[in-house]
Design brief:
396 residues, Rossmann fold, seven-stranded parallel β-sheet, six-stranded parallel β-sheet, 17 helices
Length: 396
């Protein structure tokens, strides 16, 4: 285990708390609290994060929560794509100048790149977590996509020339060599995508299954996360509608997670129009902690049929942790990982025919799944590993 008991004043900076943002911050905060780290951790985020922690953490002299004002976060969310980068970076600089940390970590580096390149000077060394490097995979593209990739590479190379920039952590581990080649930045490190394990009480899984009304003879296909058009829900529903009567009677499609107000009526109308014997359960709620693990435990297969998804997905890690095979998009790093590690089946996520065939293979038990590879992947992507990689990386 690496020694991360460094004496420093570290600033974590994030402008959003949805999805992975809160999870990643939580892993670092909890690790800092539990370990004998001689230093102060400043956590600057939108309002509401501190309320999710125990008084032991919020009152700790080693951990300080600082809340952005509503006006500050609104200025970022209402800005254009370009304006958002400069606004987010300027806000970071404002708080870094005020708090004077020894080092700062941008929790979502992708947003800050233009500001890092052309914005104000950072008062301290700064590192970042890179979520969406989509230029390392061999993917057929048209000229517009090629132009977009060129622009993305160019901006990244400019941003990392900032003399204050220290370490870039990439959640897409396969992209590290490509990033180094593009930017000539030596300190580019692979980063685990963390998932926290929760122990489930005896009978908890069966109780949840009964509460949802899922019969034992049905196979449960879980589509989890923030539910929007990028998750590939509509092609999945089309595929379910194409199943035979006999096959559909064995299927439960479980949609679990928050959904946007504009997209929800579209999904509900499509479900209402289907003529199928499949059971479709819509659990449009935000799940946290052990609730998440319960939903993975009751599933038989997990769907990651995202539309041209870039980078990694924590859903893959959660599925591996729960020993559940994936029915996945064949696109990019995600598709390559699932295929190469035999974590399930990959296919064209835009094709209802291909998805239907994957459902049929699942019902017949014909999907290849390597349990040892899944266990290894889960062990490599724990919350502890994530926190240690970050703290070692910023102290290089």
């Amino acid at each position: 285990m690496p020694d991360v008991r460094y004496c420093m004043k570290l600033l974590l900076f994030d402008t959003a708390l949805d999805g992975h943002h809160t999870d990643y911050l939580t892993h670092l905060i909890e690790y800092w609290q539990l370990q004998p780290i001689k230093g102060e951790l400043y956590v600057v985020t939108p309002q509401g994060l501190a309320a999710q922690f125990s008084s032991e953490i919020t009152r700790s002299y080693r951990i300080k929560f600082v809340e952005l004002t509503v006006a500050e976060t609104t200025k970022i969310t209402e800005a254009s794509m370009v304006g958002r980068s400069f606004a987010a970076w300027s806000l970071y600089v404002k708080y870094a100048e005020k708090l004077r940390p020894d080092h700062a970590l941008l929790m979502y580096f992708d947003v800050f790149q233009l500001g890092l390149w052309l914005g104000k000077k950072s008062p301290c060394p700064v590192s970042g977590i890179y979520f969406r490097p989509n230029f390392s995979q061999k993917i057929d593209t048209n000229w517009k996509e090629e132009l977009s990739l060129f622009r993305k590479k160019f901006i990244l190379s400019r941003a990392l020339l900032n003399p204050a920039f220290a370490t870039l952590f990439s959640l897409d581990k396969s992209a590290v060599p490509a990033i180094k080649n593009i930017t000539k930045q030596r300190s580019v490190l692979p980063l685990s995508d963390p998932v926290k394990h929760y122990d489930l009480a005896s009978g908890q899984v069966e109780a949840q299954k009964q509460a949802l009304g899922i019969a034992d003879f049905r196979k449960v296909f879980l589509l989890f996360g923030y539910l929007d058009e990028r998750k590939g829900i509509e092609p999945v529903l089309d595929a379910v509608a194409m199943l035979t009567r006999e096959d559909s009677q064995q299927v439960t499609l479980l949609l679990a997670g928050p959904i946007g107000n504009e997209f929800r009526p579209i999904v509900e109308a499509k479900i209402a129009s289907l003529n199928t014997n499949a059971q479709i359960i819509c659990h449009f709620q935000n799940l946290i902690g052990g609730e998440i693990q319960t939903f993975f435990a009751i599933s038989d297969y997990v769907l990651t049929l995202y539309r041209k998804h870039v980078g990694m997905s924590s859903v893959v890690i959660r599925a591996a942790l729960s020993q559940k095979p994936l029915i996945s998009s064949d696109f990019g790093y995600l598709g390559n990982l699932v295929q190469s590690q035999h974590l399930g089946i990959t296919l064209d996520s835009e094709s209802p025919d291909a998805i239907r065939e994957a459902f049929r293979q699942a019902l017949r038990g014909e999907i290849n799944f390597d349990r040892r590879a899944a266990e290894k992947l889960a062990n490599e992507n724990t919350a502890r590993t994530f926190a240690e990689q970050i703290l070692v990386g910023v102290n290089r």
